[in-house]
């Protein structure tokens, strides 16, 4: 094992293993402040005082969101033979919302429970408390959850269009188009990621409930009778997706919708709930929507949205299982899960986001030991080369220890340090975020080594010519 001649390189190792661990759940205020300070999430239109419940995703936030969407798409579309993608428009024919029931069911005076967020028709509530949990209710409002706007130059009733409150309907109205174009057979799915808008009565909890958000939805069409089997299948698949990306199973639970909570179109519905800083709350909904949507659209459009089964010679309207997740809610869950603090012997706190490497906004930081004129050019060259494959940050400001901390705080899995010895032996050190261990690798091996580690290879596996560093 080699010993570093550079004391500064040891900075990241001062941390004692006195981790707070996840015993105490991170407070929302800490997450909000980190997100603002480091460029994950900013209040929308902040210079004008902000716009209620709207948020902007900064340089790191947009990477995190893109990585979440990419991970979802990879699992739900790319790796599957039975699912194809779609990107339908946000504005849809108004009849869509008549058929789906959105226009009718949101036109009543509604009250919303401030605690469980169930909405009730005001005339159905007897004693002024939430019929489900007994919570306090908001004032009644004639409420249509959908945002309304006008298409074209004339602002009259005929020109009214709505911003979609879910991406799902785009997939139902395109059922025949996709079926014909992709020549899929049941069971098969259509997946979509896109913006949805809801004029929520009680938005809040940071990015948990907002009025503009992104959904990741799958409509999985199956034969009637096989729906319950597929419902179970998707429950497990979706739970596993979160666990594979670093969420502990004990921080997830399933909650069944019962009685009035079950939507009019659904035969069964479960929420995957996560233990958010403010408590357990819905992360994703999985519903058995039966043949409701395709039947409704068949009736309202006059188009036949049935399926012909060549094997049995039967024609029927497929059932649909829908796992529906929110991008921002997932981001909040992944951030909550990843946030950790460790204290060193001096009582200093290391904040570290233990994000899965697939989700980390920056994969690699390139850090010359100092701004020395001999170190900066090769460090910049290495950064430029790595940028072709990974999101890279180059940083040469302040001590190496501080720079490590900055990267830990945004969840960067690996830091590459170029020191004076690198100029002689053409090697650099790689430091792992979670263990703070370091290995030394030849520069020609750097890219492959980082790729392998980002894919999950154990950090102790060395490339040819590599060595352990600093009492690894
Ligand atoms: P909630 O009751 O928590 O508002 P919901 O039951 O109305 O959610 P669904 O209609 O099942 O939500 O939507 C599916 C997913 O879309 C949710 O699990 C969530 O991840 C996301 N989502 C829904 N509404 C919002 C919102 N207002 N802000 C952010 N994400 C949302």
Total helices: the number is 13
- Please provide the count of β strands: 25
| Rg, Å, rounded | 26 Å
Largest sheet: 7 strands, mixed
Helix content: 25-40%
Question: What is the first-to-last residue Cα distance?
Answer: 8 Å
Q: How is the largest sheet built, in terms of strand order?
A: 4-10-11-17-14-13-12
Gross geometry: globular
Q: How would you describe what is shown here?
A:
With 472 residues, the chain is of the alpha+beta class. It has helices spanning 28-38, 59-78, 94-100, 102-105, 168-173, 175-182, 227-244, 292-301, 327-338, 376-387, 400-410, 420-425, 443-454; strands at 18-19, 41-43, 55-57, 83-86, 109-112, 119-121, 141-142, 148-150, 160-162, 188-197, 212-222, 252-256, 268-276, 279-290, 307-309, 314-316, 319-326, 339-343, 349-353, 364-368, 392-394, 414-418, 427-432, 438-442, 467-469. The chain binds adenosine-5'-triphosphate (ATP). Residues 117, 198, 200, 209-210, 213, 215, 282-285, 324-326, 328-329 line the site of adenosine-5'-triphosphate.
